[in-house]
Specification:
Radius of gyration: 14 Å
Structural class: alpha+beta
Strand order of the largest sheet: 1-2-3
Number of helices: 3
Helix content: 25-40%
Length: 94
Amino acid sequence: MTVMNVLKTLSSRQIAELYSTDEYPREGCHLEVSVHATGFSVAVFPPKDVFPTEQPIEVYGASNPDELQKLINDWLSFKVGKRQFSDQGSCTTS
């Protein structure tokens, strides 16, 4: 059974809880890369068919193409910084 098939068996609450952790499954997620004058931003979105949302679950920054490639490779390998939530519910990564 694939990760996507397992996700489809979970309740909405279970899926939301899963994607609020740092160890969420990468399969089915999509990355949106934006180019800025000073570098790049990468927004991570969960699979739309199991957790539809317009808000990214994580956002990262990179200053050059090599850093961007490393960031994506690290994200795929679960090596990107851990998320920290503020009292207001916003999320930052380190």
